[in-house]
């Protein structure tokens, strides 16, 4: 089973004030980062979370650049002291069995940030939440936000349904100067304001589960993330080693291909496993220890990042396909960007969308660097091996994106040489089995 250091159904139930400087919707990595960094500046912050902790969440693999937000949050020593498996590299497998050499992060930068971790999100997210509380934020779980309140175009707070452990409920209005939507893929405010724009090239679906006793590589490679493409690039698997001899294994492909009418998640997973000999070999000695999970249609961006008194953060602003394990890093980094804009806005008394969303251009450029490399990964006629053979000078650019160093403008130079590379859309993808 997935390990957790915390007792089940852990909740936060403090008494709440009628108003705060900032209300954050969602206590995932983005929301907890915003809360910690804004509360550290002396502002009153309330985080409203629908679930209780620890809570299950996929997205276990951290890329090296997560080191810097975690350091700013004061959590590096806790991560070092944890039992999370250490991750030194990522390795790619094409056509179901052709293994590339591992990309060792310390070959790009020998700094200790080049070693990262594979985490169980239940414990990792709880660590982030506890850190926000330690820094002065108020966190309330069992809190379902029903509505963001507006006075004209200006957000003024939220309406929230609070539930107790015995099932009693209470609906309250809580005022704030700033409302942060960090609600993850549910994108609470973005959806209600019709800001969400799906990526037409990344309409993907995923089936995943957890396996105990799978084959692992020895030594330094034991904690490596493996990305394995199946035959003809119709799908790909992730393989993420976790604690307790458990691995997270998922398969992603176009939605119509992954979820044909009448097929179960288990049947889809087994069908694709049969097309990936390298993954099948690793899973032969293992036993599945949880049911299969599915996610559908999850790459998107928002047409607006902020308005007067409100701002989107992390996955609520946009999400990119998980092939390069960018999700947690972008949530943490996005949390930093948003927190800095809020602190500036509160200090100057300027709660306009221009100030609260001043990070959008830089953040979006970083996401686009991930996005374009994802497009190349899916493009059936593009070969990274051939491209790198022809353009070896761009290997540092690829490694920079793989580790998450995507906010330097020069990183994007690789895409000039690469040209316009797009994967097939859902409408023209071959879904024959």
UniProtKB/TrEMBL annotation:
This is FAD-binding domain-containing protein. Gene3D superfamilies: FAD/NAD(P)-binding domain. GO terms for molecular function: FAD binding. Residues 20-274 form the FAD-binding domain. It comes from Thalassoglobus neptunius.
């Amino acid at each position: 089973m997935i390990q957790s250091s915390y007792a089940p159904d852990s909740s936060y139930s403090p008494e709440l004030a009628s108003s705060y400087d900032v209300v954050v919707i969602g206590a995932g990595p983005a929301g907890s980062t915003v809360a910690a960094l804004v509360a550290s500046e002396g502002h009153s912050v309330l985080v409203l979370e629908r679930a209780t902790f620890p809570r299950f969440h996929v997205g276990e693999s951290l890329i090296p650049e997560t080191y810097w937000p975690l350091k700013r949050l004061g959590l590096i020593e806790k991560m070092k002291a944890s039992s999370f498996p250490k991750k030194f590299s990522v390795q790619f497998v094409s056509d179901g069995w052709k293994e590339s050499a591992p990309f060792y992060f310390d070959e790009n930068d020998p700094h200790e940030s080049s070693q990262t971790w594979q985490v169980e999100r239940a414990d990792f997210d709880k660590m982030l939440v506890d850190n926000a509380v330690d820094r002065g934020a108020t966190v309330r779980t069992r809190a379902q936000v029903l509505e963001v309140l507006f006075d004209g175009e200006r957000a003024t707070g939220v309406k929230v349904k609070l539930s107790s452990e015995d099932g009693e409920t209470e609906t309250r209005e809580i005022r704030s100067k700033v409302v942060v939507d960090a609600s993850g893929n549910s994108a609470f405010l973005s959806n209600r304001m019709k800001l969400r724009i799906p990526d037409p090239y990344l309409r993907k679906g995923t089936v995943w589960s957890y396996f105990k006793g799978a084959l692992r590589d020895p030594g330094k490679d034991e904690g490596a993330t493996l990305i394995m493409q199946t035959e003809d690039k119709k799908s790909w698997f992730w393989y993420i080693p976790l604690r307790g001899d458990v691995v997270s294994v998922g398969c992603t492909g176009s939605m119509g291909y992954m979820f044909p009418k009448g097929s179960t998640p288990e049947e889809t997973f087994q069908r694709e496993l049969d097309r990936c000999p390298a993954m099948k070999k690793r899973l032969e000695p293992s036993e599945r220890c949880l049911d299969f999970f599915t996610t559908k249609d999850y790459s998107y961006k928002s047409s607006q990042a902020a308005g007067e008194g409100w701002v989107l953060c992390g996955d609520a602003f946009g999400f990119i396909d998980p092939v390069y394990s960018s999700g947690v890093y972008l949530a943490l980094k996005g949390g930093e960007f948003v927190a800095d804009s809020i602190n500036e806005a509160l200090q100057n008394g300027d709660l306009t969308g221009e100030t609260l969303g001043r990070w959008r251009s830089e953040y979006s450029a970083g996401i686009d660097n991930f996005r374009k490399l994802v497009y190349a990964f899916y493009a059936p006629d593009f070969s990274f091996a051939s491209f790198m053979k022809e353009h070896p000078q761009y290997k540092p650019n690829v490694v920079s994106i793989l580790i998450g160093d995507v906010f330097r403008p020069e990183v994007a130079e690789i895409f000039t040489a690469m040209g316009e590379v797009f994967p097939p859309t859902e409408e023209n993808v071959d879904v024959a089995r």
